[in-house]
Structure formats: structure tokens, C-alpha cells
């Protein structure tokens, strides 16, 4: 027991399981506590005993394991011996291998040195060969060969040469080196001189020959610069020659007017040809491309400055400007063509050069170069001068056409209209031919403003001036022959009134003609655009197209303004030319009594008192207009006239009085009139005569109350255009209807 | 004017010296970007943006012109049909401000007299380099009875406001014009002709 108690204490000291130690036990005084602790300790003791039993049980198996281990001892000793033997062998093999590899490395170094020696010997031999070769070649003036030798020398490794100089043969190598360097310098000088000579002598073959030598001598830049210079000077001189020819040439010649454009064309064509022929050379021998082209542009200045000088001086007669303008647009078109050519070339080169590196940046750079190069700038300036001149030309020409306006009989439009549209069309076509979108848009804008403000004003004033005269004529005529216009007087009148009327009509007519022209111009431009679109709109052309579309739509808007003007003009014409004639014809209705009995009604049946004459008169009046006006305008005019007639009729009817048969008579007359008017217009006129027809219906009633069969809920499909008050008013026109009955009506 | 997809169509033309930021203002407004290293404009560029103002669709046709002298004759041709002109200068460039009277002369000469002109001082993001004081520009604008606004295309300051204010002003004028027109010039048509026939009848 003491044993287990000790162990329990030990475990307590080690601080593990038991929650009770000796001090706590001795401190306990209460019996309850002591009993509880005792129970606890008993439980712990049982636990410890169980564990001890378990440990004792394990002793057997541990013993067997120890025995097995003891038996393994001798085996392990054997393994140890084997292992140390193996390690010795590995160490030996290793040292052996290291020895072998060292020897191989030494061999390799020896081989490399040997190669170097051979290379150097070769170089030295080459050098000597070059030295000899250069001298012979120079002596024989075989510059290509000499250049090849120098090229070989230059491509030798400089350090190798340095090394060989330190070797035993240094003096010999030195000597050849010096010789070579001398030869190189000499060759450079000679080639440069020869190239200059060739350039001076304009010997293309020689130029090309020496041009090819430059890259061999490592002078790429210099060669390119010289070649570019050569090409420039050649182009310059050629251009100057042409210019001299141009300015010195006989100005009486027909082509003299176009010399500048011709000159530029020649120049550009020349350049294009040069670029084409020399490009392979440049590409083969030089890495950098197209630098020389920038040089070209300087040369344009010569030509263009002279162009510019020639232009502002000619602001006198529009007709004189004509050729200059054509020339400028031609020049611009040529320049555009040239730039397109360059762009295509450069793009092609990019593709050939390195398909992977064609980045957006490259293309942007090219665009930038082309857009901002001197040529573009010059052309932009030229166009800048061109536009105001073209505008001036257009304006002046139109003014002239207006001033020379004549009207030919049988023509629907006056000369002015035709001329103006011819001019405007011409100017826009010319602007289009410049291949410059901005230029085209600007001219469309100018044309638009010219037509919309100036030209419209001219027409407007003409319309305004015209009508009072017509009215005057009408009054005169009204005085001289009041009742009707006899055939003869009509013919006489034609010379006076019709002359003016027709002129007015014509003016109205050409308004429509304008609309047509406008659409025509538009479609014309569209066709032209379509044909040149593939060329002009290469690369992001949608913006350009939108620009043109927008400018054109302004033009269309203008055409609708002209339509308004036309409408105004026609209304005016209707009031001043038609109304004074039609009005008395309709008023004559008053003199025909409609308070009639059977006998008179039959008499009217036999001899029409009014409507037939009215129709004949109207027919004659409208015949004049029909010949002078275009169908569309004539139609509008007749429409205006029918409105006028219906209004006048209504007013007249309200001044009459009717019997039952008189109402029937009026109904007949109205039907004839409507039937006639329906034949002369394509418009539906029933609507315009709705009120009158309803009035006739009322005048035809048997009794006052019969109206109720047609009114209100009984109206059926009929929509009354007359107010109840008006219905009463019409009913009152019937002399046989009593006013009390009318008043009593509930409408 | 067709009424397909908008209630109003206005043409706005930007003018002013080269390099004051016209293209950048237009790009900022129409595309929401500020292109650094923007090259000089060639001739005229054209952009469209439709905005909605108080429920009405307004299509803005914006013409961005080249400031360089050699394009002047091209750009001038657009003045007349413009509903509004945005005259732009660079607040960091005294020269661009001094040229304004010259531009005003151009406007006087080429634009229609109903055109709405607004003066815009651009590049206020470069405040430390400012050469033209705000007060001075405001005075100038007032003397010429123009609206005035300072913007930065780079920081997108006032750009939206510029175009929207302009659109509002244009709508207001368009409505005003419509009213005026209805009062003074009757459209030639049936309704009106009656009265005017009766008033000039001779018998």
C-alpha cells in the first residue's frame, strides 16, 4: 500500500493526474472532506494498479524482441564491410574519369587554338590578297572589285587584325594594312568624285554604278543622301526645264492654259517612274527606305510657288479663272494619286519586310508622314486658294447668267435657270475632280449658300416685280372688254399679258426644275462618288462619306425651300392673274334668275344660261397656263383655282334667291362644273365642293322639315360641312320657304 | 427636316486658332476620351452625337475645323449653315485670345445672323500656365454678347455642360422662331388664303 501511495505522490509531484497531495490531506479537518479525498485516492490507486498490470504483461514480448536483435548483430557487421569496399571502388572510378575529361578539355582547347590560327592565317592571306587586289583593281579602274576587297577587309574582325599585328609578321601585316587603309580612303574619294562627276554629267548608268559601291564601303547614309540629292537635283532641273518651257512657251497654244498642271503631272510622273526604277536598287543596297522621298518634296516648292504667283493676279474675269481652277484641281488630283502611290508602296514594303511588325503605329506614322509632308501641305494651301476662287467664279457666273436672263417661247424655264444650274454643277464637278473631300464639301456648301440666299432672292424679287404688272394688264383688259374675252383680243392679249405671265410661269416652272436639278445634281454626285469611291475612300472613308452626305442633305433642304417659294409664287399668281378673271365670270351667275318656273327651267335646259360659258372661259384661261407650265406646277395651280372657284361660288350663291326649280337648276349647274373640273385636275375636288354640294341639296328640298331627314342622327354617311346657322341661311334663300318654319327647325 | 429619330437637328461648328483643343473637346464629348498627342486636324472632321434634353431627342452634328490658316477657306464654307459656333481659345496662350477679334470678323462675314456663338477658354487643367485671366475673357465675351465658358477637355471639366447648354439654347431659339414664323408669315395654304382673298377683292 505504501508503495502505491508513494507512486501516487510521485505522480502528484510530477504535476500530472492526482488532484490531491499530502499537504491538502493534512490540512483537511472535516470528516466529510476526508472521506471524499479518501474515495478519490482509492479510485486513483485502482487505476495505477491496472496500469502496472498492463506493463508487466508486456514484458514477455519485449524480451523476444531483444533476442531477435542480438541475433542480427553478425549480419550487420558483414554489410558494413561490403559497403566500405564499394565506396573505395567508386572513388577510384571518379578520379579516373576526371583524368580523362581533363585530357579531353586540353584537346579541345588545342583544337580551338588551331582553328584560330588557321582563321588568322586565312585573314592574313586575305588581307594580303586584298591589298594586292585593291591595288590592281584601282590601277585597272575596276572600282567594283576594289570595293569588294575593301568590303572584305572591313568585314574582317578588327581585333584579329590587331592581334596579328602583334605577332612576328607584324611588319608585313602592318604594311598591307596601311596599304589597305590608304586604298580605302582613296577609293572613297574616288567613288565620291566619280559619283559627283556622274551626277554632274547626268549619266544615270554611272550614277547607279557608284551608288552601288557606297554600301560596300560602309557609307550607307552618305550614299543614300547623295543618291537622293542626285534624284532631287535631276527632278529639280527637269522641273525647271519644264517650267521654263511652260513659261517660255507660246501662250496662244491651247494647252498653254494647262501648262502648270502638265508640268506638275510630268514632274510627278517622273518621280513616280524614278521611284519605281530606283526602288529595287535602294531596297537591295540600302536598309533605310524612302528617305530620299522627303527630299523630293522640296522640289515641288519651285513649281508650286510659281503656280501660286500666277494665280492671285487673275482675279478679273471669271472665265479667265476657269482654266486655272481646272488646273489646280487637276494638280491636286495628281498629288493625291501620287500620295496614294507612295502609301501603297510603303505598305507593300512593310508587308514584304516583316509581316509581324506591321503595327498600327507604323501605319499611323505613314499616314502622318503623308498627311503632313510638304507636298500635302502645299496642296492644302493650293486648295485653300482654289476654294475662294471657285466660289468667286461661281458667284460671278451666276450673277452674269441672272443679268443675261432671257426667256424663249416654248421653253418651260428661262435661260437663267439652266445657266445657273450648269454653272453650279460644273463647279461641283470640278471640285469633285480634285479628289479632295474637304474641297468638295466646301464647294457644296458654297453652292448651297449661293442657291439658298442669293439665287432664291433673285427669284423672289422677280416674282414680286412680275405680279403688279400682270395685275395692271388685267385691269386694262377688264376695262376694254368687260363681258368676255373674244378670241382675237385673247390673242392680242397674249402678247402683252401672256408674255409676262409666261415669264412668271416660267419662273415658277424653273423652281420645280430646280428641285429636279437638285435631285439630279445629287444623284450625279452620287454616281461620280461611287465611281471614285474605291480610290478616294481608301482607309477610314466612312467619315468622309458622312461629311459629303451631310453637305448634300443641306442641298436637299434648300430644294425644299425652293418648293416653298414656288408655292408662294403660285398663290400669288392665282390671286393676281386668275382671280380677277374668274371672279366676274362667277358673278354673272347673279344675273341669271334662279327664281324660275317650269317654262324657264325648260328654256334653261335648251339654252344653258351660265355654266357652259363658264366652263369654256375656264378652259381657255387654263390652256394658257397648261402650255407654259410644267405638269406638276400646272396641277398645283388648278388646285388653287378650284379652291378659288368654290369660295367665289359660295359667296355668289348666298346673294341669290331660288325657287324649287331654281334649286334644281343650281344643282345641275354645280354638277356640270364639278364634272368639268374633275377632268382638268388630278386632285380630288369633291372635297373642295362639299359645302356647295350640300347647299345644292338644301336648295332642292321639298319642304323645310325635309332637312331633318338628312340632319343629325339621319345624316348617315354624310358629314355636314355647314353649320346649323348656315343651313338656316341657305334655307332662307328659297323664296317659297317660310321663315317661321325655318326658325322652328331644331338643328 | 425629317423626324425619323430625333426632334431637333443642330449644326455646331468649332472654330479657333490651331492647337487650342477643338478636336479634343469634340472627342471628349462624343467619344469620352482624351487623345494625347492629337495631330493637327486636316480640313474638317465631322461627328454626331444624339442627346436627350427634357425628353426631346436632339441630334448634334459637330463640325471640327482645322485651325491652321491654309484650311481657312474650307472651314469658312461651313459657317453659314451652322446653328451654333463654338469659338475656342487656349487660356494658356495669350496669342489665341488676341486672335479672337479676327475670328469674330470671320463670323460676321460668313455666318448667318441668327447663329449662337459661345466663347470657350480651354485647358483650365493647366491653371499654373494661365495667361488669360477669366475676368478679361468674361468682359470680352460680354462686350460681344457671347456666352462664356471655361473647359478642360483633359479633365472633362464643363465639356458636357458646354454642348448641353448650347443644345438647350438652340432649342429655345428654335421654339421662339417657330412662334414668330407662325405669327408673321402664314404658310401658303387654303386656310389663310381665304382671308387674304377677301381683303383685297376689288368689287
Automatic annotation (TrEMBL), chain A:
It is a peripheral membrane protein. Keywords: Coiled coil, Golgi apparatus, Membrane, Protein transport, Transport. It comes from the Eukaryota. The keyword Membrane applies. GO terms for biological process: Golgi organization; protein transport; retrograde vesicle-mediated transport, Golgi to endoplasmic reticulum. Residues 31-58 form a coiled coil. The lineage of its organism: Eukaryota, Metazoa, Chordata, Craniata, Vertebrata. Residues 180-464 form the COG4 transport protein middle alpha-helical bundle domain. This is Conserved oligomeric Golgi complex subunit 4. GO terms for cellular component: Golgi membrane; Golgi transport complex. It is found in: Golgi apparatus membrane. It comes from Monopterus albus (Swamp eel). InterPro entries: COG4, COG4_C, COG4_M, COG4_N. Belongs to the COG4 family. Its main location: Golgi.
UniProtKB/TrEMBL annotation, chain B:
Its EC number is 3.6.5.2. This is Ras-related protein Rab-30. One of its GO terms (cellular component) is Golgi apparatus. Belongs to the small GTPase superfamily. Rab family. The small GTPases Rab are key regulators of intracellular membrane trafficking, from the formation of transport vesicles to their fusion with membranes. Rabs cycle between an inactive GDP-bound form and an active GTP-bound form that is able to recruit to membranes different sets of downstream effectors directly responsible for vesicle formation, movement, tethering and fusion. RAB30 is required for maintaining the structural integrity of the Golgi apparatus, possibly by mediating interactions with cytoplasmic scaffolding proteins. It catalyses: GTP + H2O = GDP + phosphate + H(+). Keywords: Cytoplasm, Cytoplasmic vesicle, Golgi apparatus, GTP-binding, Hydrolase, Lipoprotein, Lysosome, Magnesium, Membrane, Metal-binding, Methylation, Nucleotide-binding, Prenylation. It is a lipid-anchor. One of its GO terms (molecular function) is GTP binding. It is an enzyme of class 3 (hydrolase). NCBIfam families: small_GTP. InterPro entries: P-loop_NTPase, Rab, Rab30, Small_GTP-bd, Small_GTPase. It comes from Seriola dumerili. Pfam families: Ras. One of its GO terms (biological process) is Rab protein signal transduction. Its cofactor is Mg(2+). PANTHER family: RAS-RELATED PROTEIN RAB (PTHR47977). SMART domains: RAB, RAN, RAS, RHO. It is found in: Autolysosome membrane; Cytoplasmic vesicle, Autophagosome membrane; Golgi apparatus, cis-Golgi network membrane; Golgi apparatus, trans-Golgi network membrane.
Amino acid at each position: 500500500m505504501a508503495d502505491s501511495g508513494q507512486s501516487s505522490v510521485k505522480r502528484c509531484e510530477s504535476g500530472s493526474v492526482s488532484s490531491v497531495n499530502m499537504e491538502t490531506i493534512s490540512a483537511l479537518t472535516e470528516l466529510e472532506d476526508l472521506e471524499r479525498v479518501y474515495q478519490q485516492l482509492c479510485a486513483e490507486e485502482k487505476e495505477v494498479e491496472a496500469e502496472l498490470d498492463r506493463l508487466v504483461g508486456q514484458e514477455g514480448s519485449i524480451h523476444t524482441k531483444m533476442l531477435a536483435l542480438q541475433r542480427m548483430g553478425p549480419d550487420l557487421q558483414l554489410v558494413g564491410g561490403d559497403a566500405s569496399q564499394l565506396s573505395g571502388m567508386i572513388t577510384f572510378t571518379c578520379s579516373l574519369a576526371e583524368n580523362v575529361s581533363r585530357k579531353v578539355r586540353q584537346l579541345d582547347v588545342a583544337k580551338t587554338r588551331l582553328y584560330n590560327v588557321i582563321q588568322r592565317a586565312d585573314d592574313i592571306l586575305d588581307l594580303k590578297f586584298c591589298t594586292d587586289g585593291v591595288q590592281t583593281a584601282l590601277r585597272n579602274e575596276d572600282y567594283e572589285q576594289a570595293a569588294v576587297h575593301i568590303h572584305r577587309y572591313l568585314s574582317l574582325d578588327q581585333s584579329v587584325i590587331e592581334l596579328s599585328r602583334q605577332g612576328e609578321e607584324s611588319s608585313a601585316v602592318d604594311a598591307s594594312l596601311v596599304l589597305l587603309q590608304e586604298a580605302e580612303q582613296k577609293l572613297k574619294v574616288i567613288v565620291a568624285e566619280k559619283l559627283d562627276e556622274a551626277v554632274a554629267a547626268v549619266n544615270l548608268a554611272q550614277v547607279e554604278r557608284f551608288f552601288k559601291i557606297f554600301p560596300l564601303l560602309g557609307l550607307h547614309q552618305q550614299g543614300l543622301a547623295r543618291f537622293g540629292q542626285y534624284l532631287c537635283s535631276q527632278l529639280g532641273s527637269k522641273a525647271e526645264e519644264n517650267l521654263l518651257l511652260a513659261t517660255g512657251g507660246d501662250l496662244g497654244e491651247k494647252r498653254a492654259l494647262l501648262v502648270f498642271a502638265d508640268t506638275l503631272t510630268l514632274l510627278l510622273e517622273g518621280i513616280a517612274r524614278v521611284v519605281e526604277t530606283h526602288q529595287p536598287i535602294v531596297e537591295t543596297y540600302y536598309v533605310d527606305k524612302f528617305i530620299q522621298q522627303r527630299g523630293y518634296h522640296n522640289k515641288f516648292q519651285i513649281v508650286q510657288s510659281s503656280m501660286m504667283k500666277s494665280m492671285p493676279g487673275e482675279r478679273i474675269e471669271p472665265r479667265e479663272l476657269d482654266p486655272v481652277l481646272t488646273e489646280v484641281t487637276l494638280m491636286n488630283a495628281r498629288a493625291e494619286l501620287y500620295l496614294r502611290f507612295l502609301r501603297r508602296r510603303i505598305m507593300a514594303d512593310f508587308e514584304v519586310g516583316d509581316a509581324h511588325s506591321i503595327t498600327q503605329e507604323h501605319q499611323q506614322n505613314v499616314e502622318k508622314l503623308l498627311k503632313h509632308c510638304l507636298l500635302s501641305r502645299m496642296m492644302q494651301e493650293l486648295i485653300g486658294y482654289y476654294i475662294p476662287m471657285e466660289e468667286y467664279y461661281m458667284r460671278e457666273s451666276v450673277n452674269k447668267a441672272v443679268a443675261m436672263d432671257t426667256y424663249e417661247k416654248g421653253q418651260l424655264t428661262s435661260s437663267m435657270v439652266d445657266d445657273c444650274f450648269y454653272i453650279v454643277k460644273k463647279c461641283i464637278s470640278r471640285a469633285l475632280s480634285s479628289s479632295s473631300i474637304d474641297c468638295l464639301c466646301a464647294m457644296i456648301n458654297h453652292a448651297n449658300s449661293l442657291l439658298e440666299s442669293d439665287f432664291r432672292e433673285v427669284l423672289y424679287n422677280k416674282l414680286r416685280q412680275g405680279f403688279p404688272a400682270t395685275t395692271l394688264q388685267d385691269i386694262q383688259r377688264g376695262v376694254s372688254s368687260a363681258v368676255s374675252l373674244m378670241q382675237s383680243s385673247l390673242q392680242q392679249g397674249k402678247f402683252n399679258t401672256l408674255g409676262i405671265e409666261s415669264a412668271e410661269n416660267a419662273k415658277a416652272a424653273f423652281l420645280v426644275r430646280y428641285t429636279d436639278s437638285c435631285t439630279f445634281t445629287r444623284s450625279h454626285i452620287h454616281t461620280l462618288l461611287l465611281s471614285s469611291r474605291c480610290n478616294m475612300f481608301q482607309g477610314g472613308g466612312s467619315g468622309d462619306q458622312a461629311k459629303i452626305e451631310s453637305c448634300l442633305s443641306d442641298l436637299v433642304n434648300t430644294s425644299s425651300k425652293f418648293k416653298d417659294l414656288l408655292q408662294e409664287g403660285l398663290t400669288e399668281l392665282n390671286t393676281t392673274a386668275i382671280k380677277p378673271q374668274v371672279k366676274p365670270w362667277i358673278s354673272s351667275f347673279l344675273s341669271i334668275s334662279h327664281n324660275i318656273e317650269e317654262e324657264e327651267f325648260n328654256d334653261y335646259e335648251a339654252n344653258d344660261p351660265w355654266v357652259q360659258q363658264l366652263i369654256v372661259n375656264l378652259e381657255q384661261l387654263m390652256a394658257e397656263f397648261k402650255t407654259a407650265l410644267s405638269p406638276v406646277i400646272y396641277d398645283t395651280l388648278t388646285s388653287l383655282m378650284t379652291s378659288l372657284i368654290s369660295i367665289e361660288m359660295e359667296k355668289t350663291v348666298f346673294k341669290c334667291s331660288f325657287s324649287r326649280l331654281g334649286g334644281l337648276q343650281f344643282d345641275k349647274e354645280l354638277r356640270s362644273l364639278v364634272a368639268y373640273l374633275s377632268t382638268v385636275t388630278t386632285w380630288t375636288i369633291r372635297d373642295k365642293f362639299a359645302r356647295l354640294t350640300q347647299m345644292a341639296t338644301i336648295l332642292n328640298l321639298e319642304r323645310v322639315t325635309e332637312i331633318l331627314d338628312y340632319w343629325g342622327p339621319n345624316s348617315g354617311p354624310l358629314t355636314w360641312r355647314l353649320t346649323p346657322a348656315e343651313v338656316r341661311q341657305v334655307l332662307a334663300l328659297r323664296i317659297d320657304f317660310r321663315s317661321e318654319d325655318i326658325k322652328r327647325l331644331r338643328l | 427636316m425629317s423626324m425619323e429619330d430625333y426632334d431637333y437637328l443642330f449644326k455646331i461648328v468649332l472654330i479657333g486658332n490651331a492647337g487650342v483643343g477643338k478636336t479634343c473637346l469634340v472627342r471628349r464629348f462624343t467619344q469620352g476620351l482624351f487623345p494625347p498627342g492629337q495631330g493637327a486636324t486636316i480640313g474638317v472632321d465631322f461627328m454626331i452625337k444624339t442627346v436627350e434634353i427634357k425628353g426631346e431627342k436632339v441630334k448634334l452634328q459637330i463640325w471640327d475645323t482645322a485651325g491652321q490658316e491654309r484650311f481657312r477657306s474650307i472651314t469658312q464654307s461651313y459657317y453659314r449653315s451652322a446653328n451654333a459656333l463654338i469659338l475656342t481659345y487656349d487660356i494658356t496662350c495669350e496669342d489665341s485670345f488676341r486672335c479672337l477679334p479676327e475670328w469674330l470678323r470671320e463670323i460676321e462675314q460668313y455666318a448667318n445672323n441668327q447663329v449662337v456663338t459661345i466663347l470657350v477658354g480651354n485647358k483650365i487643367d493647366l491653371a499654373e500656365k494661365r495667361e488669360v485671366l477669366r475676368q478679361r475673357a468674361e468682359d470680352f465675351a460680354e462686350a460681344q454678347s457671347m456666352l462664356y465658358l471655361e473647359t478642360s477637355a483633359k479633365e472633362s471639366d464643363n465639356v458636357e455642360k458646354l454642348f448641353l447648354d448650347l443644345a438647350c439654347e438652340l432649342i429655345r431659339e428654335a421654339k421662339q422662331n417657330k412662334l414668330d414664323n407662325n405669327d408673321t408669315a402664314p404658310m401658303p395654304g387654303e386656310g389663310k388664303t381665304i382671308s387674304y382673298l377677301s381683303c383685297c377683292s376689288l368689287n
